[in-house]
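ingest -> validate -> predict -> emit
validate: passed (alphabet ok, no gaps, 118 aa)
predict: started
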Amino acid sequence: MTLKRENLLEHTELENILDKIPVGVTLTDLEGRILYYNEYSSQIVDRKPEYIGKDIRVCHNQRESIVKIDSILRELKEGSSQEYYYESKRNGKTLEVTVLPYKVNDELIGFIQSFVVK
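emit:
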């Protein structure tokens, strides 16, 4: 079964769905500026409305996290289409983080970071 264009969800409906799933989602551009995050991510990690348009590195206090972000961004810009996975400790909990390229019409525009509490 294929969906026809008129059956696709409206933008606000999609945001509502993303806000309800128990997975944190953050979308950034190729420079690492935050374009979007869902409500669940703000319950787990440092995401605030004023961060939209800001560099994702402002949400990270540990040097190793910033180095990891820089490495992933560099590899994506160099053409990598690989999925990245790592674990991070936050407030005594382990986050399973997945980062993957975000493309629109086959053009790389950034990355999607998703995370769940383990």
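Residues 9-15+22-117 form a domain with the Beta-Lactamase fold (CATH 3.30.450.20).
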